[in-house]
Write a structure and sequence with these properties.
binds fe (ii) ion; 7 helices; 27% helix; alpha/beta; 14 strands
């Protein structure tokens, strides 16, 4: 019999932008990491309380307001360690109280649970995804049948192209994608399903990806996103 995972992941959809806030719960220690605390933090704290979790860590996928506006409220209740990519801290420029700054590939230990931080630039220079077992918390890098915009400050469609190509090539096909916003028909997906139906994973040429991301997509496709057939992303 396969051993049960040492953790569970709880998702809450909060706020006016359909953000997903995640709690990664390590069963053995009762510790929890909250990923992108924002909006109705009281709901996050209540869920942690119901399951007997102690929030010891705060993980940021990036520094945009809709992913971070609850940090202060979490810190009022718990003495939690803040984690983000070094590149994101530099981009953000915010004075942070002794954060742990990561590079791609770093491992964060939460009791018996190991969380691996992947550096996935494109939406912002220091965007991160967090890998926990077979699950990947993707922030605004990869959405279900979508990806984060690259036209805001610090966004870069070329970086996003390479980030998404690397993810599709390197991560196991069965990886469960758990995004930072609920913009699709489903709240999660597998990497295999995304390689098949996510238009942003269909391009094999960076210029065409960039044109699609920056000039075509938003005028032609609206959430909730569903699959797109290969070759039907945009006319030539
Ligand atoms: Fe964002």
């Amino acid at each position: 019999m396969p051993e049960a995972a040492p953790f569970s992941i709880h998702a809450l959809e909060l706020g006016p932008m359909e953000n997903f806030v995640y709690l990664v719960h390590d069963h053995s220690s009762g510790r929890a990491a909250v990923v992108d605390p924002a909006w109705e933090v009281s709901e996050v704290l209540a869920l942690a309380g119901q399951h007997g979790m102690r929030i010891t860590d705060i993980l940021l996928t990036h520094s945009h307001h809709d992913h971070i506006n609850g940090i202060g409220e979490v810190l009022q209740r718990y003495d939690a360690q803040l984690h983000l990519m070094k590149a994101e801290a530099q981009f953000w420029g915010q004075q942070l109280d002794l954060p742990t700054l990561h590079h791609g590939g770093d491992e964060i230990r939460l009791g018996e649970t190991v969380i691996r931080a992947l550096h996935t630039p494109g939406h912002t220079p220091g965007s991160a995804c967090y890998q926990v077992g077979e699950q990947l918390l993707t922030g605004d890098t990869l959405f279900v049948f979508g990806c984060g915009r690259c036209d805001l400050r610090g966004g870069d469609p070329e970086q996003m192209y390479h980030t998404l190509q690397d993810m599709a090539r390197r991560l196991p096909a069965g990886t469960v994608i758990r995004p930072g916003h609920n913009y699709a028909e489903h709240d999660s997906s597998t990497l295999a399903e995304q390689v098949e139906g996510n238009p942003f994973l269909h391009f094999d040429e960076v210029d065409r990806f960039t044109r699609y991301r920056m000039h075509y997509h938003d005028g032609h496709r609206h959430s909730p996103y569903g699959p797109v057939r290969r070759g039907e992303e945009m006319p030539d």
